[in-house]
Design goal:
3-stranded parallel sheet; 5-stranded mixed sheet; 150 residues; alpha/beta; elongated
C-alpha cells in the first residue's frame, strides 16, 4: 500500500489503554490508514520517529488562549507539547460577547494577559471572534466557551 506519509519506528501510545508498542503509522489524505509493520510500503514522505512517541493529539481542557492564538496563530508552545485542541473561555472570561464595550476598554479593564495584545478587537460576538481567528490562520482546533462574566 502507498501512503502520503509514513511515520516509521515510533512508539505508539494510542489512548486505548493497551501498553505502548513500536509500530509504523501510514497516513493518506490526512487519515491514519494503517498501524503496524509498514517499513516496505511506498510513501510520499517519511518521518523517522525512532526514540519518539507517536500519539493522537491532546486536548487542553483549560486554556486561556482566547487572544494569544490571535497573536500567535501557530500555537507553537502547545503544538510542541502535543496539544492539537484547546478549550478556551475558562475562568469566567471570554472575549465575546462584548456588547458596546470596545476592545481598548476591555484591554484596560481585564487583565488575563489580554492587555499585552496589540490586536485591534474588531468583533463583538462569537462569530466575529471565530472569523478573526480563521482569517488569521490557526494551526490548532479551538473549542470556545462563553465565560459567565462576559
Amino acid at each position: 500500500m502507498a501512503f502520503d506519509l509514513l511515520i516509521e519506528k515510533g512508539t505508539v501510545v494510542d489512548g486505548t489503554g493497551v501498553a505502548r508498542f513500536r509500530a509504523d503509522v501510514g497516513v493518506s489524505a490526512g487519515k491514519i490508514e494503517a498501524v503496524g509493520a509498514l517499513a516496505g510500503s511506498e510513501a510520499g514522505r517519511r518521518i523517522d520517529a525512532a526514540g519518539h512517541i507517536v500519539a493522537p493529539g491532546f486536548i487542553d481542557m483549560h486554556s486561556h488562549s482566547d487572544i494569544t492564538l490571535l497573536d500567535d496563530p501557530s500555537g507553537e508552545s502547545k503544538a510542541y507539547q502535543g496539544v492539537t485542541t484547546e478549550v478556551v473561555g475558562n475562568c469566567s472570561f471570554s472575549p465575546f460577547p462584548t456588547g458596546k464595550v470596545t476592545g481598548a476598554e476591555l484591554r484596560k479593564d481585564v487583565d488575563l494577559g489580554f492587555s499585552q495584545s496589540t490586536l485591534e478587537w474588531d468583533w463583538s460576538d462569537l462569530d466575529g471572534w471565530a472569523g478573526r481567528l480563521e482569517a488569521n490562520g490557526i494551526s490548532l482546533n479551538v473549542a470556545p466557551q462563553v465565560g459567565h462574566s462576559a
